[in-house]
Amino acid sequence: MGPRNLATDCHLIRWRSSCPGSGTRWSAKGDNVAEARFVTYETVDDGRIARIMLNRPDARNAQNRGLLVELNDAFLRAEADDDVRVVILGGVGPMFSSGHDMGSDVQRREFLPGPEQHPTRRINGGTRSAAESLMLQEWHYYFENTRRWRNLRKITIAEVHGTVYAAGLMLMWACDLIVAADNTMFSDVVGTRLGMCGVEYFAHPWEFGPRLAKELLLTGDSLSVDEAHAIGMVSKVFPVDELGERTLEFARRIADRPTMTALLIKEAVNQTVDNMGFYNALNACFTLHELNHSHWAWLSKGEWAVGTPEAGVPSWRDAPPVQPRAKDNRELTP
Asked: What letter does residue 197 receive in the DSSP assignment?
């Protein structure tokens, strides 16, 4: 594989190459066996609240494989700890998450064979080829990971700020509650910049509503935090410089509920939504996502798994700034 075509974690990769390659392991009470590089973990209030922070501020918390594996380990650590009642997920730096890593040096080293290749590149389909490899790797590390976090046996709160892009939405939507800084915007640009029908965990119609989901995916426009609060996606909006402390105050309110009560409230709502079709819709849309990859791979004769300028999709590297959603289209900046 030439470096010209290696750009991302199973997205802007040569289709013919496999995705070969575990992360930090935690005990419920003890220290991690290997030092985590990409997330931080702490507990407060005598262990009642766990705070997990994405910790790649230089990469705007882009989700490389190491980060996702460490995040899963951190969630499982909080789940295993019977003292923990609420888990907060936030991000260090200027934004919560810019989405999947689109080709940083760290990502490249994790992907390519060599001493720094991530071990998960050699399991869970990593040594298979073509569509099978991509589908299995994305199922394990993007799709099923996110659904596992959604069903964590603890109440989870996403603490977001800045612009939340694409796969950043997946992490946020996996949480039971979302609180946001007053500077937050939400945008999924994979349709306009990669020619994809959405991210792997396709919760858009359930979180935005059907028509708004179509509009945001077709235009790539961003949703403001006030609009997100108005539609019920965001529970609380706090001043950005007070976000950490105000989120902790909110988490303390939730932590005061009896643990069985909190768990059954979560389970009742999740099971209701699943019986309305959410679970099966996620499965179906993940399959469509993989079909979308295969379409671009077919058109590019096996070179790319996403849309490219040669196929009529503008390059994501040269994309203009995201436009805020406007009531009147003429309000948009040309």
From this structure: S
Q: Compute the distance between CA of residue 281 and CA of residue 276 in angstroms, rounded to an integer.
A: 9
Strands ordered across the beta sheet of 185-187? 163-165, 185-187, 223-224
Q: 252-281: b or e for each residue (b if 16 or more CB lie within 10 Å)?
A: eebbeeebeebeeebeeeeeeeeeeebeeb
Answer with the residue of higher pLDDT: 222 or 35.
Answer: 222
Q: Rounded to whole angstroms, how far apart are CA atoms 264 and 277?
A: 20
* 171, amino acid identity: L
Can you tell me the mean pLDDT for 93-122?
95
The closest of 112, 82, 153, 89 to 7, measured between CA atoms, is 112
The three-class DSSP label of residue 66 is helix
The distance from CA 191 to its chain's CA centroid, rounded to whole angstroms, is 16
Question: What's the burial of 297, exposed, middle or buried (CB within 10 Å: 0-12/13-18/19+)?
Answer: buried
- The pLDDT tens digits of the residues spanning 296-317 come to 999 999 999 999 999 999 988 8
Q: Is the pTM of this model over 0.85?
A: yes
